[in-house]
From TrEMBL:
<dbReference type="Pfam" id="PF03951">
    <property type="entry name" value="Gln-synt_N"/>
</dbReference>
<feature type="compositionally biased region" description="Basic and acidic residues">
    <location>
        <begin position="96"/>
        <end position="105"/>
    </location>
</feature>
<dbReference type="InterPro" id="IPR027302">
    <property type="entry name" value="Gln_synth_N_conserv_site"/>
</dbReference>
<keyword id="KW-0150">Chloroplast</keyword>
<dbReference type="InterPro" id="IPR008147">
    <property type="entry name" value="Gln_synt_N"/>
</dbReference>
<dbReference type="InterPro" id="IPR014746">
    <property type="entry name" value="Gln_synth/guanido_kin_cat_dom"/>
</dbReference>
<dbReference type="Pfam" id="PF00120">
    <property type="entry name" value="Gln-synt_C"/>
</dbReference>
<feature type="domain" description="GS catalytic">
    <location>
        <begin position="159"/>
        <end position="428"/>
    </location>
</feature>
<keyword id="KW-0547">Nucleotide-binding</keyword>
<protein>
    <recommendedName>
        <fullName>Glutamine synthetase</fullName>
        <ecNumber>6.3.1.2</ecNumber>
    </recommendedName>
</protein>
<comment type="subunit">
    <text>Homooctamer.</text>
</comment>
<feature type="region of interest" description="Disordered">
    <location>
        <begin position="96"/>
        <end position="117"/>
    </location>
</feature>
<dbReference type="InterPro" id="IPR050292">
    <property type="entry name" value="Glutamine_Synthetase"/>
</dbReference>
<feature type="domain" description="GS beta-grasp">
    <location>
        <begin position="79"/>
        <end position="155"/>
    </location>
</feature>
<dbReference type="InterPro" id="IPR008146">
    <property type="entry name" value="Gln_synth_cat_dom"/>
</dbReference>
<dbReference type="InterPro" id="IPR027303">
    <property type="entry name" value="Gln_synth_gly_rich_site"/>
</dbReference>
<dbReference type="GO" id="GO:0004356">
    <property type="term" value="F:glutamine synthetase activity"/>
</dbReference>
Length: 428
């Protein structure tokens, strides 16, 4: 992101007006996803998003589409709530749906944790706590997506529930007073379904070297634009604070940006955006990969650069606060790296616009550093920093709360601070 701007109003858990959920644009905006045929009955050009069902003489696909597009509002006061949670790997997403009367009255629910790797078979019940609501671009109407976190029946957060700890950090009075903003750049790779090879690549072979693909256009440079565009619209419809998208350096790789978002909202919005992307690639018959280095060799990896600022950084004299934050980050480099995503050592090699995983560095406009500060921030004497270390599969609850904890709550010893200041001075 070039700049962190003032955050927009976020979709709230408790909505004052139920009518805010409804949207008159549902059918028009989502015909590309729900595969609605035109009036003449001919197939749309975006046939790749067609429901995966065989078209038979009795129009099986047409009848299925009619049901998918069915407006149930005249027949029931209930809406469909899709409960979404993070599975046992810490990166997979699970969901199931139920009818509810009103989004402000969402009940807790449960699921079989032994089937997701989150509980033993003899005591498998895991409880879902609804935490954030988004509009559902797949079902449309008043239907909603519900981001949940996970607890034991006794009310204890299970190990994969990283949101609980993040919420504690962001509710700390010292942290909330600093109004932490986050702008997260989520990179991802699209893979061909059967061969697990990047979209647009010759099977078992390689495309031309990197260079023409970043923000490129053309059938030989851009692979998966329909998916990226469909995802962009889905996020806007859902109420996710998406702020941009672009083709990435490696062909078949894309990026979208979410933010600026305040505190815990950043994690909620990223996780919901990932869920939407999983559903869209499912419909397209393409595999979504968040592997930080999906293809070994002279190809860029996939990161999740996290832009971050506090109220003190954004005010006059904020550049000194930024430098103090960088000093703290240098002292906790190992703690951050260990929490910044699995397989990140394959990406952070010091090549392909990354810093080495083994050392901490920072610089102005330097994309080969751990922390980058923009030219405009240096010029204005205030602004934000970009942490370039997080991998594409990082947990946004962990990364955002750890940044806030290290830069706002954690205080190094005077001796460690002086030593770190010396090292950073030599770096720059």
């Amino acid at each position: 992101m070039a700049q962190i701007l003032a955050p927009s109003m976020q979709w709230q858990m408790r909505m004052p007006k139920y009518s805010n959920i409804a949207s008159p644009m549902t059918t028009k905006m989502w015909s590309s996803l729900l595969m609605k045929q035109n009036k003449k009955g001919t197939n749309r050009s975006s046939a790749k998003f067609r429901v995966l069902a065989l078209k038979s003489e009795d129009s099986t696909v047409n009848r299925l589409e009619d049901l998918l597009n069915l407006d149930i509002t005249p027949y029931t006061d209930k809406i469909i709530a899709e409960y979404i949670w993070i599975g046992g790997t810490g990166i997979d997403m699970r969901s199931k749906s139920k009818p509810v009367e009103h989004p402000s009255e969402l009940p807790k629910w449960n699921y079989d944790g032994s089937s997701t790797g989150q509980a033993p078979g003899e005591d498998s019940e895991v409880i879902l706590y609804p935490q954030a609501i988004f509009k559902d671009p797949f079902r449309g109407g008043n239907n909603i997506l519900v981001i949940c976190d996970t607890y034991t029946p006794a009310g204890e957060p299970i190990p994969t529930n990283k949101r609980h700890r993040a919420a504690e950090i962001f509710s700390n009075s010292k942290v909330s007073a600093e109004v932490p903003w986050f702008g997260i750049e989520q990179e991802y790779t699209l893979l061909q379904q059967n061969v697990k090879w990047p979209l647009g690549w010759p099977v078992g072979a390689y495309p031309g070297p990197q260079g023409p693909y970043y923000c490129g256009a053309g059938a030989d440079k851009s692979f998966g634009r329909d998916i990226a565009d469909a995802h962009y619209k889905a996020c806007l419809y859902a109420g996710i604070n998406i702020s941009g998208t672009n083709g990435e350096v490696m062909p078949g790789q894309w990026e979208y940006q979410v933010g600026p978002s305040v505190g815990i909202d950043a994690g909620d919005h990223i996780w919901c955006s990932r869920y939407l992307l999983e559903r869209i690639t499912e419909q397209a018959g393409v595999v979504l990969s968040l592997d930080p280095k999906p293809i070994e060799g002279d190809w860029n990896g996939a990161g999740c650069h996290t832009n971050y600022s506090t109220k003190s950084m954004r005010e006059e004299g904020g550049y000194e606060t930024i430098k103090k934050a960088i000093l703290n980050l240098s002292l906790r480099h190992k703690e951050h790296i260990s929490a910044y995503g699995e397989g990140n050592e394959r990406r952070l090699t010091g090549k392909h616009e990354t810093a080495s995983i083994d050392s901490f560095s920072w610089g102005v406009a330097n994309r080969g550093c751990s922390i980058r500060v923009g030219r405009e921030t240096e010029k204005q004497g205030k602004g934000y920093l970009e942490d370039r270390r997080p991998a594409s599969n990082m947990d946004p609850y962990v990364v955002t709360s750890l940044l806030a904890e290290t830069t706002i709550l954690w205080e190094p010893t005077l001796e460690a601070e002086a030593l770190a200041a010396q090292k950073l001075a030599l770096n720059v």
